[in-house]
Write a structure and sequence with these properties.
By secondary structure, the chain is mainly alpha-helical. It has two domains: 86 residues, no CATH class; 31 residues, no CATH class. 36% of the residues lie in helices and 8% in strands. The protein is built from four helices and three strands. It has a three-stranded antiparallel sheet with strand order 1-3-2, with no helix packed on it. Strand 2 and strand 3 form a beta hairpin. Helix 2 crosses helix 3. It is elongated.
């Protein structure tokens, strides 16, 4: 099968694909349970998913040089349900942090909140007190 040539800024480079490919689940046709062989290369499906994320286009508006939109949409839905998308995100984040000379995982977290003056209709049991502002408030 002839591969689609790289023509969009969102298309994966070979080194990115080398990182992503092993994280994808085994194709159904290669499992003991079996399944149909995949009709479209996974690399092209990943490129289509990245195109939708990058441009914000609708799935149905996916350019015709990608696999059919429904094929790409179903793949991302299956992979997201299996936690694969999160694993890919985590691996890419670790790689970027390492390339920046940082530790792979974040070592500090900043949590911020905002106090909003509570309406008189808000019960006292769900209000807090913001000592800095000297006001009863609900946290948001």
């Amino acid at each position: 099968m002839l591969a689609r040539r790289r023509c969009y800024p969102s298309d994966t480079y070979d080194d990115e694909w080398a990182l992503i490919e092993p994280l994808l689940p085994i194709p159904a046709c290669e499992t003991p349970r079996g399944g149909r062989p995949e009709k479209h290369p996974r690399h092209e499906i990943v490129d289509a998913i990245r195109h939708v994320v990058d441009t914000g286009c609708k799935w149905r508006a996916l350019p015709k040089d990608y696999p059919p939109w429904r094929t790409c949409y179903n793949a991302v839905a299956r992979w997201a349900a299996a936690g694969v998308i999160g694993q890919i995100r985590d691996q890419l984040r670790k790689r970027v942090r390492r390339d920046m000379g940082r530790s792979p995982g974040a070592v500090a977290t900043i949590i911020d909140s905002q106090s909003v003056k509570a309406a008189e209709t808000v019960g006292k049991d769900s209000r807090g007190y913001d000592a800095a502002k000297k006001t009863s408030a609900t946290a948001h």
